[in-house]
Amino acid sequence: MRTRLTQKLCIEHPIISAPMGLAAGGRLAAAVTKAGGLGLIGGGYGDSEWLEREFAAAGDERIGCGFITWSLAQKPDLLDFVLAHEPAGVMLSFGALAPFAQRIKEAGVMLICQVQTLALAREAVAAGADIIVAQSAEAGGHAIERATFTGARDRRLSRGRSAGYVLVAAGGVADGHGLAAALMLGADGVLVGSRFWASTEALVQPELQAAAVAADGDSTIRTTVVDIVRGYDWPPPFTARVIKTRLTMDWHGREGELAQPAVQEREKARYWKAFHAGDVENTCVLAGEAVGLIRDVVPAGKIVRRMVEEAEALLARSADTLGSVSI
Amino acid sequence: MRTRLTQKLCIEHPIISAPMGLAAGGRLAAAVTKAGGLGLIGGGYGDSEWLEREFAAAGDERIGCGFITWSLAQKPDLLDFVLAHEPAGVMLSFGALAPFAQRIKEAGVMLICQVQTLALAREAVAAGADIIVAQSAEAGGHAIERATFTGARDRRLSRGRSAGYVLVAAGGVADGHGLAAALMLGADGVLVGSRFWASTEALVQPELQAAAVAADGDSTIRTTVVDIVRGYDWPPPFTARVIKTRLTMDWHGREGELAQPAVQEREKARYWKAFHAGDVENTCVLAGEAVGLIRDVVPAGKIVRRMVEEAEALLARSADTLGSVSI
Fold first, then answer.
1. Do B145 and A325 touch (CB under 8 A)?
2. CA distance, residue B266 to nearest chain A CA (Å)
3. Separation between Cα atoms, residue B192 and residue B185, nearest integer Å
4. Mutate which of B184, B242, B318 to test chain A, going by most A C-beta atoms within 10 A?
5. What is the pLDDT of residues A165-183, one digit of tens each?
6. Residue B66 shares a structural domain with residue B148
7. 20 to 30 A from A315, CA-CA: which of A98, A131, A281, B237?
8. pLDDT digit string (tens) for A212-254?
């Protein structure tokens, strides 16, 4: 399955794994690349020891890395560290591109910019993005309120013919149906988070993955609770999509109270204890609406192959049976 | 383009026009049917004189009608009135189905149920729905927070093999890309609102249509302002997507103040005066994220033909060029 994205990245399948903080380590990224996509390590909130270890875990596979840009701004040296590993691409999301975009381009590394609005898309074009990821509200973790269905379409329409970037859809894609639909909407490929989060190689507690497998698509909510409780200073209007656990729903709507220092400190300790223990209801589970499409925890390579085979079959069948295209 | 939907409804193209209150009159519905889809008149908040006139305006074309179910419950006789016109289908959305579903089925009329969650989808199956419309948050007007991209997929997955209904995706579909993507996601067709709202035959002030043509996909917001100001008692969690006009943004976040009787009465008068005068900034414009994909106001028949031709070309091309499917 060749698209502008596979050509741009010299990969086999138009699938990128999302650089999910803590969850997307070197083994996951390497497995996605090995299967013909491109794997990205999650730079998260910037822990250089973690990054060192995970780049090592990726071995010789060609992978990239993604950053939460506003967080990277607090530890800008991490970019040099990552560039020294000669990544296949660096993805920036959630913050001002200017200081970093140029360094990435100068290093001869592919600049991947994830955007959530048309204004951010224009900023990414101005910064020289090679790949623009149009991310939407159904995504797990941080995003804002736009849907893939229209978002990918109008990012596509908004691009000038001369702009050389390729477009990737993110948010809600977890199977071949989603990949085929994204291509129909005008995207050149997909960036997939939750589905890879529920893979064997992801650095995720099995109990949290089991909760995602058990959840349906109506089981998630966008909220700021997960950031307040962890003490992360996310700028508005970003919120995070999580599964509706007890902790989340207890505090959703009472964010002011949660933010009080004594309360936050107590809840933060409980959050991380439960997170590491796999105690689902007493932590937050960052995952997208696509959890409704996840039925098992399998190796990332199998996820890539399934998606591609399913999408190819759908696309072939749609033309074979153009007189009757229900699938 | 034949799908389960075209077979079920005996129509040519898998496209239904949304029963938008006030906007979707008889001429629009008739034009969509004449072009090979199925047009639905918008029952809205239940004005029998308006319905009488619009059924007459549809002439002899085979059309259907849609209701806001909680509003219909306040004027249940309207259903008899509509059934007496032998509609091709009656769509129920936003309320308890039980009292009406049975009467529709008994009249031998196709039961179309629009749902926003899996629980509502199950209720629709239990009520014997012939067609289930999976509506999502990018839609204009009322809905709740689920996206088409995942919503249509997991409604599809959730249906038992024995359930005989066909699935229609709604929200964010305004062109052939959207139609083709919806089919890839597993839907049998699409229900289209905003794109037909911006058609020649829609009962919409030209100034409001011009505002939608000028808007991009980031120009809309989900809010309760439009219902509070009009005095409509919408049950939570439904909100309405509107273009960010001055009136909307002045009151969004100050809903409690707006709901005070003296304020609401004053603003309601201003709202309707501006609405009828085409004074965009001082009223609300119910429209979906798909406004970013609307570039012109054209006859509904042309919209249907464009969508079908574009979708067919995309589906054919995807297979012709399966080695390079970027579109």
1. no
2. 31
3. 16
4. B184
5. 899 999 999 999 999 999 9
6. yes
7. A131
8. 999 998 999 999 999 999 999 999 889 999 999 999 999 999 9
Quote the domain boundaries for residue B244.
206-290
The closest CB to that of A325, out of B137, B315, B323, belongs to B315
Residue A45 placed within a domain: yes
Residues B100 and B249 in one domain: no
Beta bridge partners of A166: A131
B189 and B220 co-located in one domain: no
SS3 at position A223: strand
Q: Could you tell me which residues come within 8 angstroms of residue A217 by beta carbon, excluding any fewer than 6 positions away?
A: A289, A290, A291, A292, A293, B118, B146, B150, B151, B153, B154
Angle at which helix A300-320 crosses helix A176-184, to 10 degrees, equals 50
Task: Look at chain B and report how many structural domains it folds into.
Answer: 2
The encoded tokens of residue B213 equal: 């043509």
Neighboring chain A residues of B137 at a CB cutoff of 8 Å: 137, 145, 147
Together in a domain, A32 and A181: yes
Angle CA B93–B243–B65, to nearest 5: 25
- Read off the CATH number of the domain in which B190 is found: 3.20.20.70
Give the closest residue to A244 by CA, choosing from A267, A212, A205: A212
Q: Is the preceding omega at residue B87 within 30 degrees of 0, hence cis?
A: no
Mutation target for B interface from A9, A117, A149, A175: give the one with most B CBs within 10 A.
Answer: A149
If we measure between CA atoms, which residue out of B257, B278, B280, B276 comes closest to residue B267?
B257
- Confirm whether pTM is higher than 0.90: yes
ipTM (interface predicted TM): 0.92
Chain A hits for B149, CB-CB cut-off 8 Å, are 136, 138, 147-149, 171-173, 178, 181, 289
- 3-class state of residue A66 by DSSP: strand
Does B149 share its domain with B224? no
Q: Which residue has the tokens 């990737």?
A: A168
Answer yes or no: do B278 and B142 share one domain: no
Residues A20 and A160 both lie in one domain? yes
